[in-house]
Write a structure and sequence with these properties.
alpha/beta, SP_NH2Trfase/AEP_transaminase, binds pyridoxal-5'-phosphate, Aspartate Aminotransferase, domain 2, seven-stranded mixed beta sheet, 15% strand
């Protein structure tokens, strides 16, 4: 007979999901109420306000989509695009490729701007693509490329879109609450995220924000949005302004309690402090990894503090090490994706998981697994290097 499921707890230091805070798990277990109950509507309003804080925006259309980060991505494209449109899509990792898929499925044309995996998007190439394709109406790029650990210059890229009269779509799934993300100051038009990365919430919800210019484009669409579920004109009636809420779909009520709690935690800590913590812990992890003799896959200027890509040393079996971390230490780190499979590990320090204890747990586990695979390394030296970087 089947029985209740009790997973062995893991420390989640991969590309997501990341460790969920106990406060968030506690919120999830509170009593379910109706999704049109006045109490729930008040919660929805508070969630919107907290999301505006996290996104650093006053955009009225700032809401959580009831589906994972990928649905946020799809929402951005299906709402802004119409068949025949041209979109400049930057690709420097896996997620830019998914953007292209979305563009093409909308019947639009994707003009690709390619950069090496692990490098940031080159703004000059984007300018050049706009000069060659003046009809392009949207620029899409990934701010924090989780597949490689590289950070692009989102502010500059949004400004280039404006310079050429286009709207910007920014993937901030891994960025939100981990690195600075100034939606209004940068003039970003559609920015989407996910709950399972630096928000340390359960997976399955996608916060998204639309600028007034993006809302105007949606309102003046020549035809209907191809997706019924993600059509913002309909979703707005449910999450929308101050008027009565119309039933669109049943919000994942308890998951919204969880999101609310995770956003409260972000606000209590403060964005600036959260960015500083992610940066400090990243520096300490890198110091420790380098003391183990490992090297980072991304140049120092473009490294994401929340996603650390490490080169796998020659002769070391990727799967065996990750297996040892999971089985012997209950610690999950990520494998390389696509072109980087077998070449890098991706160590997440996201949200709640970005803390000194996890850094030390990871260095200890990695040092021991590497040593047992015949790789000479000094775990004590790695821990000392991390402690010094942390100021301990
Ligand atoms: C994780 C991630 C996504 C997809 O989010 P899901 O919640 O897995 O659907 C999209 N873009 C980036 C950059 C991501 O890291």
């Amino acid at each position: 007979m089947s029985s209740s499921f009790f997973p062995t707890p893991r420390t989640l230091m991969g590309p997501g999901p990341s460790d969920v805070s106990p406060r968030v798990l506690g919120a999830l277990s509170r009593p379910t109420i109706g999704h049109l109950d006045p109490q729930f509507i008040a919660l929805m309003d508070d969630v919107k306000g907290l999301l505006q804080y996290a996104f650093q925006t006053e955009n009225a259309l700032t809401i959580p989509i009831s589906a994972p980060g990928s649905a946020g991505m799809e929402s951005a494209f299906v709402n802004l695009l119409s068949p025949g449109d041209t979109v400049i899509v930057c690709q420097n990792g896996v997620f830019g490729g998914r953007m292209r898929e979305n563009v093409e499925r909308c019947g639009a044309t994707a003009v690709m701007v390619e950069d090496a995996w692990g490098a940031p998007v080159d703004p000059e190439k984007v300018r050049e693509a706009f000069r060659k394709n003046p009809q392009a109406s949207v620029l899409a790029f990934v701010y924090a490329e989780t597949s490689t650990g590289a950070r692009s210059d989102a502010g500059t890229l949004c400004a280039i879109a404006k310079e050429f009269g286009a709207l910007s779509i920014v993937d901030a799934v891994t960025a939100l609450a981990g690195i600075d993300l100034q939606v209004d100051a940068w003039g970003a038009d559609v920015v989407y995220s996910g709950t399972q990365k630096c928000l340390s919430c359960v997976p399955g919800i996608s916060p998204i924000t639309f600028s007034p210019a993006a809302v105007e484009r949606i309102q003046n669409r020549p035809g209907k949005v191809q997706s019924w579920f993600l059509d913002m004109q309909l979703v707005m009636g449910y999450w929308g302004g101050d008027s009565k809420r119309a039933y669109h779909h049943t919000a994942p009520v308890n998951a919204m309690y969880a999101l609310h709690e995770s956003l409260l935690i972000v606000k209590e800590e403060g964005l600036e402090q959260s960015f500083a913590r992610h940066h400090r812990n990243h520096t300490a992890l890198v110091a420790g990894l380098e003391a183990l003799g490992l090297s980072m896959a991304v140049a120092a200027d473009y490294r994401l503090p929340q996603l650390n890509a490490v080169n796998i040393p020659d002769g070391i079996d990727d799967g065996a090490i990750r297996g040892a971390l999971l089985n012997d230490h209950n610690l999950e780190i990520g494998a390389g994706l696509g072109a980087l499979a077998g070449k890098t590990w991706r160590i997440g320090l996201m949200g709640h998981a970005s803390n000194p204890g996890n850094i030390k747990r990871c260095l200890t586990a990695l040092g021991s697994a590497l040593r047992r695979s015949g790789y000479a390394c000094d775990t004590e030296a790695a821990l000392t290097a991390a402690e010094i970087a942390l100021g301990e």
